[in-house]
Amino acid sequence: MKTVVYPGSFDPVTLGHLDVIERASAVFGHVVVTVMINSTKTPMFTPEERVALLKEATGHLDNVTIDFHKGLLTDYLRERNLNILVKGLRVISDFEAEFQMASVNRKLLANLETVFIMTKTEYMYLSSSIVKEVAQYGGDISNFVTQGVQKAIERKVGGL
């Protein structure tokens, strides 16, 4: 039973993320969804809030756990003796960025394998950034996130 890590900022977790998590959990023995810090992004939620939202959203999956790491992903993997990453892909530009990241990670951790999972077509347009922008302008995000995440976002943007 292989354990894989699905890293991301998950700010917030979207239905696209959940699609990848659910599909990875059907293929692998254990999926560790790891909230990471992305220094190029301004987060809406604290790491602790993101962990809590992910735990709520994945509560129905017995072989999924949620974790947090601040630092290099390869250090996280090395500390836990893990060597398989799952990355979600939506569009070609995702592949280009993820391929580059996978190559760098493999230089840092020689035995690392990265498995790419394509999101379902219905989520190809979806990103956390889009969800936050739509919410900040009062748009309906109910088709993008779980109810729990929607409520948390609404609290953050002023109770829309």
From TrEMBL:
<dbReference type="GO" id="GO:0004595">
    <property type="term" value="F:pantetheine-phosphate adenylyltransferase activity"/>
</dbReference>
<feature type="site" description="Transition state stabilizer">
    <location>
        <position position="17"/>
    </location>
</feature>
<feature type="binding site">
    <location>
        <position position="41"/>
    </location>
    <ligand>
        <name>substrate</name>
    </ligand>
</feature>
<protein>
    <recommendedName>
        <fullName>Phosphopantetheine adenylyltransferase</fullName>
        <ecNumber>2.7.7.3</ecNumber>
    </recommendedName>
</protein>
<keyword id="KW-0808">Transferase</keyword>
<keyword id="KW-0547">Nucleotide-binding</keyword>
<comment type="similarity">
    <text>Belongs to the bacterial CoaD family.</text>
</comment>
<feature type="binding site">
    <location>
        <position position="17"/>
    </location>
    <ligand>
        <name>ATP</name>
    </ligand>
</feature>
<feature type="binding site">
    <location>
        <position position="87"/>
    </location>
    <ligand>
        <name>substrate</name>
    </ligand>
</feature>
<keyword id="KW-0548">Nucleotidyltransferase</keyword>
<feature type="binding site">
    <location>
        <begin position="123"/>
        <end position="129"/>
    </location>
    <ligand>
        <name>ATP</name>
    </ligand>
</feature>
<dbReference type="Pfam" id="PF01467">
    <property type="entry name" value="CTP_transf_like"/>
</dbReference>
<comment type="subunit">
    <text>Homohexamer.</text>
</comment>
<feature type="binding site">
    <location>
        <position position="73"/>
    </location>
    <ligand>
        <name>substrate</name>
    </ligand>
</feature>
<feature type="binding site">
    <location>
        <begin position="9"/>
        <end position="10"/>
    </location>
    <ligand>
        <name>ATP</name>
    </ligand>
</feature>
<feature type="binding site">
    <location>
        <position position="9"/>
    </location>
    <ligand>
        <name>substrate</name>
    </ligand>
</feature>
<keyword id="KW-0963">Cytoplasm</keyword>
<dbReference type="InterPro" id="IPR004821">
    <property type="entry name" value="Cyt_trans-like"/>
</dbReference>
<feature type="binding site">
    <location>
        <begin position="88"/>
        <end position="90"/>
    </location>
    <ligand>
        <name>ATP</name>
    </ligand>
</feature>
<feature type="domain" description="Cytidyltransferase-like">
    <location>
        <begin position="5"/>
        <end position="133"/>
    </location>
</feature>
<dbReference type="InterPro" id="IPR001980">
    <property type="entry name" value="PPAT"/>
</dbReference>
<feature type="binding site">
    <location>
        <position position="98"/>
    </location>
    <ligand>
        <name>ATP</name>
    </ligand>
</feature>
<comment type="function">
    <text>Reversibly transfers an adenylyl group from ATP to 4'-phosphopantetheine, yielding dephospho-CoA (dPCoA) and pyrophosphate.</text>
</comment>
<keyword id="KW-0067">ATP-binding</keyword>
<keyword id="KW-0173">Coenzyme A biosynthesis</keyword>
<keyword id="KW-0460">Magnesium</keyword>
<dbReference type="InterPro" id="IPR014729">
    <property type="entry name" value="Rossmann-like_a/b/a_fold"/>
</dbReference>
<comment type="pathway">
    <text>Cofactor biosynthesis; coenzyme A biosynthesis; CoA from (R)-pantothenate: step 4/5.</text>
</comment>
